[in-house]
Amino acid sequence: MENKLVLSIEELGFCLMLCGYEEIAAGLIKPTLGEKKDKIWEAIFETASHGLLSKGLWNVSRQKKGDIPLNEEWISFFNTYVHSKKMFRLTKNENDDLEILMFHQISEYEWIAHRVIHHICHEFSIVNQSEIFNEINHFYGITQLDKNKTEKIHISKKDFKQMVLLTEKGNIEENTFESIFKHTKNKQLIQSFLYSLKSGKRRFPDNLSVSYIPSLQEYPTILDVVFILKEEKQLWVISQFDQYEGEPIYLMLPTMEDWKKIILQRIEAN
After folding, report:
1. Over 48-68, what HEC string results?
2. Percent of the chain with pLDDT over 90
3. How far apart (Å, rounded) are the C-alpha atoms in residues 197 and 236?
4. At what angle are helices 9-18 and 72-82 packed, to 10 degrees?
5. What CA–CA distance (Å, rounded) separates 66 from 135?
6. Is the confidence at residue 244, as pLDDT, over 80?
């Protein structure tokens, strides 16, 4: 793959189905398009085949022979994509418009970048592991962080759950958080975090997660989840558990160097 490949959800689902991954295709398409009668699905996939032909994925010669009607390089691509064992997933929710960026590891230093826009547009490209940090910053619009020193406080699991519950309810007021952070010495950091939540009109931050996919028959195992809240020149990071540093839940404002460390630790871990 030399350039980016952009597919509609119908085109991607059809490709996966043609390659023998019917359950994955159904899991992708049905939540968005809903249940349809067989004739409607046939019409949808016929239209998708026209799109694949125009994009150079469809192979008429293979179709006439009764083979999978995709060029071999794309059959290989979708097989590699589906069988990736490690996934790095990021979410961004702006104005209730969810956007997702995923990285699927396909070799020691190569990953498939998979961006989902408006639930229906799927953009693929091959990236080197060294490019992922910059891709993530571009996704979140991070150009600089105005922190010379990382600030961090620890949070108990109980207090973390309470904080999530309050923010999900939209109850973002200092007095409601006082009991959670009553033992915290850095009150200014907490007040700054609450201000960021309120000014951004967010219920809870975006997140990035690392998942291991043992096989197509098993559910992915989520190894780690990190919540982030991006502002113009600073970034809040909340880690449920940092297995790399051996620390419990923490809330932090990192420098760009420490933000890069957070990302690279999770990308490079086996």
Report:
1. HHHHHHHCCCECHHHHHHCCC
2. 50
3. 10
4. 90
5. 40
6. no
What b/e sequence results for 169-190 when a residue is b if at least 16 CB atoms lie within 10 Å of its CB, and e otherwise?
A: eeebeeeebeebbeebeeeebb
d(CA 202, CA 196) in angstroms, rounded, equals 9
- What is the reported pLDDT for 175? 58
Burial of 44 (0-12, 13-18, 19+ CB in 10 A): middle
| Spatial separation of the C-alpha atoms in residues 55 and 237, rounded to whole Å | 40
Instruction: Return the DSSP state at 2.
Output: -
- Asked if 21 and 80 count as a contact pair (C-beta separation under 8 A), the reply is no
Report residue 65: phi and psi, to 5°. Answer: -85, -10
Residue 47, pLDDT > 70, answer yes
Question: Can you list the positions of beta strands (E) in 2-85?
Answer: 5-8
Q: Are 259 and 145 in contact (CB under 8 A)?
A: yes
Establish how many alpha carbons lie within 13 A of residue 108's alpha carbon, considering only the half-sphere containing its beta carbon: 0
pLDDT of residue 100: 95
Range 106-112 contact pairs with CB under 8 angstroms and sequence separation of 24 or more: 106/80, 106/81, 112/80, 112/81, 112/84
CB 94 within 8 A of CB 203: no
Is residue 111 within 8 A of residue 105, CB to CB? The reply is yes
Contact 211, 87 (CB under 8 A): yes
Q: Side chain identity at 164, as an amino acid letter?
A: V
For tokens 């022979």, the residue is: 65
**Would you state the pLDDT for residue 138?**
95
pLDDT tens, 8-43?
999 999 999 999 999 999 999 998 888 889 899 999
